[in-house]
Amino acid sequence: MVAVFSLFAFAVSAQPHDDKDFHGKEKTVHDTKDEGKKEGFNAAEVIFGHVLNAHEFHFLDIGDKPVTIPLPVILYSPQRGLTSFMSSKFEHGHKNYKDYAILTEHSIHELGLDPNKFYAGDIVPLTKAGKYDPNVKVYDISLTRNVVQMLLALIVFVWIMLRIAKRYKSGVGVTSAPKGSQSLLEPVITFVRDEVAKPNLGRKYEKYLPYLLTVFFFILINNIFGLIPGSANVTGNIAFTAVLGLISFVVILASSNSHYWGHIFNPPGVPLGVKLILVPVEFLSVFIKPFALIIRLFANMVAGHIIIICLISLIFIFGQLNPIAGWGASPLSIAFTVFIYMIEVLVAFLQAFIFTMLTAVFIGQAFEGGHDDVDGHHEQVII
Predict the structure, then answer these.
(1) Cβ neighbours of residue 247 under 8 Å, at least 6 residues apart?
(2) Number of domains into which the chain is organized
(3) How far apart are CA 107 and CA 138, in angstroms?
(4) Residue 34 and residue 19: Cα distance in Å, rounded?
């Protein structure tokens, strides 16, 4: 399904359809002819258009009509106040609205903006003449597709858990065997408790189990949502993983004790000369741990999506060279795409598990060895 959907989406989107300039004026025959020589399938634009955030859900283009779900644009400017409207008012970058414009690769050059500071998808203020207004500061607090999809995932997550909790309260799964979604999620919850929380946190596992389960299922649901064609890759967004990493960082620091900090700033049994080298390394490791959580999840989730898009893009790259080459590359590209997609389903579960496991390991390291460490679990395994 994913391969066929992707192939169809790329096929109907590959041809240029921009017959208007940035201000909504019709292009001349000369302009269209010149751009026709340069336009074609832009793999980089398609790849980054998929993995980056946007103000709409874009599925495909049928001729010159994009099939999208517009999202609310909410802008605040100290000079202009609060402004809100639907992203469809921009007509996919062909028009401006209320003296604002959403940038495209074409409009960035047309407005004379620095491509190193302004990117496609940014919303910028304009003057009445349609030029970029550097005197107006704009804060974009819109409901982008990453935000909307994350909220949808949160709603689904809460609904599933409340539904299961209600069944347990009624006695289903307690006095009788679990049913339906209970039988699906109970082994997963038991696995996280027995294989992640207990080995790393000892008797304190019950204190941290709600957080670990929340992190695991929230990442998992967003990973699975990101595999739906046309959806956003939320866990492939560095801002999303950064927030999760910072929350885990706070939990780790809140769980630490004097024994933990003593081993960092005054490692026992280490010569003074070695301490001068070891102490800075140990101190940096406090910050490297959450950074590793952030980068690992981000890199793994975005890499799979890029590989899938690249494999599909090969069809159209070869097709531009020769139509026969494009058709010849299609079966191989689709086969590899389906294979990588199946791997991504496994990665969706695996990355949720790894993030949760490492969080439990780091929390356990923060309080192990202290007087309250009754289990005396001194050895941790870091994946």
Answers:
(1) none
(2) 2
(3) 18
(4) 12
Tens of pLDDT along 328-342?
888 888 888 889 889
Question: Which pair of tokens denotes residue 204?
Answer: 């304190």
Same-domain pairing of 100 and 153: no
**100-102 and 123-125: which strand pairing?**
antiparallel
- Residue 373 placed within a domain: no
Q: Does a structural domain hold residue 229?
A: yes
- Strand stretches in 33-174, DSSP E: 56-62, 65-70, 72-77, 81-86, 100-102, 123-125, 139-140
Question: 292 and 211 in one domain?
Answer: yes
CA separation for the pair 113, 107 (Å, rounded): 9
pLDDT digits (tens, 9 = 90+) for 177-218: 787 788 888 889 999 999 999 999 888 889 999 999 999 999
Query: How does DSSP assign 112-137, residue by residue?
Result: T--TTT--TT-EEEB-TTSSB-TT--
Query: How many angstroms separate the CA atoms of 90 and 188, rounded?
Result: 45
- Gyration radius of the chain over CA positions: 26
| 162 and 64 within one domain | no
Q: pTM of the entire structure?
A: 0.78
DSSP secondary structure, 198-231, as one string: HHHHGGGHHHHHHHHHHHHHHHHHHHHHTTSTT-
